[in-house]
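Translate sequence into structure tokens.
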Amino acid sequence: MTSTPPLRALAIVCTLNRSPAPSSSQLLAEQVLELLAAEGATTELVRAADHTIPPGVAADMGEGDDWPALRERVLRCDILLLATPIWLGHPSSVAQRVLERLNADISETDDEGRPLMAGRVGAVAVVGNEDGAHKVSADLFQGLSDIGFTLPPQAVTYWVGEAMQGTDYQDLERTPEKVGATSAALASTTAHLARVLRERPFPAPPS
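Result follows.
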């Protein structure tokens, strides 16, 4: 009897800042990954700003492009979490860059003719001290869905502080109860859907 490999969850953190600068987006992503680990998933985290990701909609932009290696990590995962701050009411430019590079695979298919990313589950984490968490998650949801990811119920967790104030998520003494509960719900539904899609993959499209 062979055991089923654990789910694989990858978080791509889309803060504008390179490591080791602190990041509220990374903190929330780490909390979600801890909850996914409790659901039996292996986890890894990438801070996109630490890598060279040129603009474009190709899988490989040539010499110096770090995206091909990151893309391979996406292809190995069952769950992709995009974590972003809110800037001017929108996802960060880094998050948009990641979606644009993922867009290279929008027309790619597997051996059964399914979208290349089909069977992978998408989720979103958003932080900010301005309005816009629902708008930001809607933007990322649409991009992930177009590319082929499947979204579970409650596929976003977020924290938005008081508008025009300087408190960040990482400044809080403890995780707000509602945020913790929302992150736990995201981890539960995301892991459940990923297991379902492993057991019952999408059918091949009609010929």
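Note: The first strand starts at residue 8 and ends at 13.
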